[in-house]
């Protein structure tokens, strides 16, 4: 990549001295000569020329190897031979020289303890300037003291093997470059660790990249970025160069290297890990014959950080940079404005490089340019790299108009948003659906991650167009991704989707449940129910324009046996797992929990294996309509006249065709107030024979079973109890004709259903306190019912205490002596003696055609518990043998004796406890407290007066009543005097 970063301006040609070192400070540059001179030049940035303002002759008369200006402290470090001299750095200009002292760089002092110096490096960290001096076999550390205006030695004990050629501060540690390796030294302990080899060239290169907390390490044919702990930066952090650099410097954010082939290369070292820089070529190559060295930064500044937008633009540009050629010609290195570079990179479609440059120099590029570049980078990532996640992150960072992002997906942007938006021409690019076909899922996933958090920022009345565009795009994205559950949750909550466009899109996608969810939130109840009715009765696709004109016609698609079988299996798998009395939503915020269409499709694939594939879509539409209608109607309020009318209008086709077990779920009893029960019963009792085959009494019985739900004594009108009773009776009566004795599955299911109905009727008769028992008795004693309702009639007789009629029913109608005995036993639990009636009817039958059943009586006496000996013996005939009933007599006498003995024992125990209580009362009453006039409260230590209520605990502690927190716990010892588990629990805690 070829890109102009720096330009060279010639300042001085072929200076007539041998220059050993160069340095810069603000607009001055310093030249150190081999004969011990320091030459100071001032550069005029306007005229692009340099003027010598002072020449200092060092008294040490040694070559000037290094010059390090520290403007912040007003000093200049000069390394002359092995002497480090500290000079005062004055403000030197080409102004009249009379106002300046004769020695403009006076030497203040020299650094002590230096010998055989190889090199040195200075850093600033936490405001303190530190200097590390590499000598031939050791490292010495110094710190600058403001009070003394000199560098003071802080450590002189780091011994090294011979051969170290360079060193560099890296935070609190130091990296050393030897001929064959790099090592890192801990300045606290002096310990060194091996890092990596130097390379075959044996020329180490170390360069600090601050304010970026990294360091450049030179290898044989490349430079590597490393962290301050010595570890290499992960990824592709290396930079290859054509030849080993003879000199290098870092001018944020660029790396400049001088090579022997008369050129200087410029690179952005932080761009190496990106695909766009795969060739790793320099950004700029400046050809200059005899290029020798570039001025270095004076010290590593670890207090500096990457510039931010509010950072002054010249924060890192205060010092000029110069380049010296081998013929002693001095050039000024001028950095082109970063903003111009960014725009140039953008014009070359190198947006990734430009964006990195913006991040590194945020204070030198205006926000509009940064946002524009981020947008271009995001578009490039989206179109070229297919890196959709990065693209969305950049769109978010640039705060672009959401319509630009939405428009990347064909058909996602709403019509109103497109009409009110004029996209920038440079960002406009038409896309076909085929452009994203291969990557649609990953693109939409990234878009959802972008749009979902963004929608909250635009959910205001002032931004309705954008909010509508975002929410509609999210809805379409969920549909394309096939994420129906997330789609339903999104549509069930507050959203700004364009209703018209969403309707069309969902219908085209056949997302019927999603469309119903959207309409329910916007209270489009009539349209929703009309759509469901049309889908369920026609099985065809629906035109939205014809929904409200659909009429209930008798020519609709019938509910045949095959479809009903599949439908009932689907309902059992979908609605069967929910509570029968639960509403599937929260009506207050209109959040519906409809069963997803994909779930129903999966269930249908499992149960409708033999269905015609050509009818599969139509079958799904019908099943969706039935299941969703049941849920939808259950959400409507019976307190609203309009919604109640819709229930009565659109529930009939479900009630008429679907099994009452499922259809009555449209009327959740937990949400319908008792005042509406009559209306519901009237609807359930309606004649719907022209629409379906279900019977009114089936619907009433099923719904009323939900109303009572084993809790019959709720405050419901007695007429509701009677209606439930009659519905159950009629339902049983209708099933009697279908009952068979076969063993096939259908007949077994029917017998099981009849048994369940009997059990339900028995429980109701047993528990209901509002039913008219007399009317129930008359109904069950009708000829067509009495022979099939023995258990129900027995419950009624028991409640009416007509025990003789109940026993006669079991003996003479049912011919079930065992049932009669069970009845007498249960009545005995109520404290009544029905065995007397049973014995009398067995010994003296009342039907006039049955002989006395003495054998049955004797067997009953010997086997049944609860027969009273005193009432049974007088009823037996005089000629009854004693031996057959001897066991009964013995058992009865033994039981009576045991009961008598138990009663006597209980009476004795009771008498003993009474006596114990009397003694305890007497003991408590005999307790007394002896006090004198000096007795004080154990808590407040105030004297107890006769007119004040006080308390004494069993351990003798006396306190005021007001000072006592708990009458059971002593306030001094905290002992609990109660008996039982509580004191032990207190102790355990």
From TrEMBL:
Biological process, per Gene Ontology: autophagy; endosomal vesicle fusion; protein transport
Coiled-coil spans in chain: none
Pfam families: CNH, Vps39_1, zf-Vps39_C
Main location: cytoplasm
Every CNH domain range: 16-301
Keyword field: Cytoplasm, Protein transport, Transport
Gene Ontology cellular-component annotations: cytoplasm; membrane
Location of the protein in the cell: Cytoplasm
Protein name, entry field: CNH domain-containing protein
Species the sequence originates in: Trypanosoma cruzi Dm28c
């Amino acid at each position: 990549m070829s890109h102009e970063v720096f330009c060279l301006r010639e300042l001085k040609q072929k200076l007539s001295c041998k220059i050993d070192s160069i340095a810069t400070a603000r607009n001055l540059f310093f030249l150190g000569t081999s004969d011990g001179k320091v030459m100071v030049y001032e550069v005029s940035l306007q005229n692009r020329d340099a003027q010598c303002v002072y020449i200092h002759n060092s008294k040490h008369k040694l070559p000037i190897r290094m010059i390090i200006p520290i403007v912040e402290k007003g000093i200049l470090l000069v390394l002359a031979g092995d002497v480090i001299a500290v000079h005062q750095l004055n403000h030197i200009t080409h102004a009249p020289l009379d106002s300046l002292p004769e020695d403009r760089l006076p030497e203040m002092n020299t650094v002590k303890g230096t010998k055989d110096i190889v090199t040195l490096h200075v850093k600033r960290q936490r405001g303190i300037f530190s200097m590390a001096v590499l000598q031939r076999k050791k490292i010495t550390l110094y710190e600058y003291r403001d009070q003394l205006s000199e560098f003071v030695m802080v450590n002189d004990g780091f011994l090294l093997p011979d051969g170290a050629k360079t060193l560099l501060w890296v935070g609190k540690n130091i990296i050393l470059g030897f001929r064959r390796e790099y090592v890192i030294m801990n300045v606290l302990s002096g310990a060194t660790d091996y890092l990596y080899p130097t390379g075959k060239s044996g020329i180490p290169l170390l360069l600090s990249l601050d304010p970026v907390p990294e360091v450049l390490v030179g290898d044989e044919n490349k430079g590597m970025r490393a962290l301050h702990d010595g570890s290499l930066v992960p990824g592709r952090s290396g930079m290859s160069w054509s030849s080993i650099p003879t000199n290098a410097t870092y001018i944020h954010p660029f790396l400049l290297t001088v090579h022997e082939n008369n050129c200087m290369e410029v690179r952005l070292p932080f761009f190496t890990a990106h695909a766009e820089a795969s060739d790793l070529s320099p950004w700029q190559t400046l050809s200059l014959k005899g290029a020798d060295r570039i001025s270095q930064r004076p010290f590593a500044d670890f207090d500096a950080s990457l510039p931010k937008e509010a950072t002054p633009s010249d924060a890192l540009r205060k010092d000029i940079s110069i380049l010296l050629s081998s013929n002693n010609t001095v050039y000024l290195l001028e950095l082109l404005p970063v903003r111009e570079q960014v725009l140039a990179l953008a014009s070359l479609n190198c947006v990734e490089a430009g964006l990195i440059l913006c991040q590194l120099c945020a204070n030198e590029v205006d926000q509009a340019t940064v946002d524009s570049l981020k947008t271009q980078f995001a578009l490039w990532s989206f179109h070229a790299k297919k890196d959709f996640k990065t693209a969305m992150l950049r769109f978010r960072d640039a705060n672009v108009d959401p319509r630009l992002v939405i428009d990347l997906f064909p058909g996602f942007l709403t019509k109103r948003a497109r009409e009110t938006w004029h996209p920038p021409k440079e960002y406009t690019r038409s896309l076909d659906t085929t452009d994203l076909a291969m990557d649609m899922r990953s693109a939409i996933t990234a878009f959802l991650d972008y749009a979902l958090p963004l929608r909250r920022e635009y959910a205001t009345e002032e931004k309705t167009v954008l909010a509508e565009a975002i929410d509609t795009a999210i809805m379409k994205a969920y549909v394309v991704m096939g994420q129906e559950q997330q789609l339903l949750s999104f549509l069930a909550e507050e959203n700004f989707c364009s209703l018209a466009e969403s309707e069309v899109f969902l219908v085209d996608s056949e997302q019927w449940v999603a469309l119903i969810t959207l309409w329910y939130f916007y209270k489009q109840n009539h349209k929703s129910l009309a759509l469901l009715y049309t889908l369920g009765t026609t099985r065809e696709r629906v035109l939205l324009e014809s929904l409200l004109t659909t009429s209930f016609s008798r020519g609709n698609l019938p509910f045949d046996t095959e479809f009903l079988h599949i439908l009932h299996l689907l309902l059992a798998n979908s609605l069967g797992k929910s509570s029968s009395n639960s509403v599937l939503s929260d009506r207050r915020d209109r959040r519906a929990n409809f069963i997803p269409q994909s779930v129903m499709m999966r269930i249908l694939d499992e149960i409708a294996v033999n269905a015609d594939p050509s009818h599969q879509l139509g079958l799904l539409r019908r099943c969706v309509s039935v299941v969703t209608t049941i849920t939808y109607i259950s959400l409507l309020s019976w307190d609203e006249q309009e919604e109640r009318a819709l229930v009565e209008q659109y529930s009939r086709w479900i009630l008429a065709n679907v099994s009452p077990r499922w259809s009555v779920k449209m009327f959740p009893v937990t949400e319908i107030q008792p005042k509406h029960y009559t209306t519901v019963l009237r609807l359930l009792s309606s004649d719907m024979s022209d629409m379906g085959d279900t019977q009114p009494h089936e619907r009433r019985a099923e719904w009323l079973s939900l109303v009572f739900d084993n809790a019959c004594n709720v405050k419901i009108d007695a007429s509701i109890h009677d209606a439930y009773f009659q519905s159950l009776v009629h339902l049983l009566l209708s099933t009697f004709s279908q009952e068979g004795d076969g063993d096939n599955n259908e007949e077994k299911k029917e017998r099981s259903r009849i048994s369940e109905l009997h059990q339900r009727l028995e429980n109701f008769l047993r528990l209901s306190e509002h039913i008219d028992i007399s009317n129930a008795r008359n109904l069950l004693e009708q000829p067509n019912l009495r022979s099939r309702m023995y258990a129900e009639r027995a419950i009624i007789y028991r409640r009416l205490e007509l025990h003789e009629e109940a026993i006669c029913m079991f003996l003479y109608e049912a011919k079930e002596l065992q049932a009669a005995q069970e009845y007498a036993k249960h009545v005995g639990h109520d404290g009544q003696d029905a065995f007397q009636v049973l014995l009398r009817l067995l010994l003296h039958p009342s039907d006039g055609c049955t002989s006395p059943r003495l054998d049955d009586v004797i067997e009953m006496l010997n086997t049944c518990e609860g027969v009273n000996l005193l009432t049974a013996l007088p009823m037996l005939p005089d000629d009854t043998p004693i031996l057959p009933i001897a066991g009964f007599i013995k058992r009865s006498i033994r039981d009576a004796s045991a009961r008598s003995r138990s009663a006597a024992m209980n009476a004795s125990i009771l008498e003993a406890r009474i006596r114990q209580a009397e003694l305890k009362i007497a003991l408590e009453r005999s307790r007394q407290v002896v006090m004198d006039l000096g007795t004080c409260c154990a808590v407040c230590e105030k004297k107890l007066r006769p007119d004040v209520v006080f308390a004494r605990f069993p351990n003798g502690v006396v306190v005021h009543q007001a000072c006592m927190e708990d009458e059971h716990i002593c306030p001094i010892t905290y002992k609990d005097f109660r008996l039982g588990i509580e004191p032990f629990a207190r102790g355990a805690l």
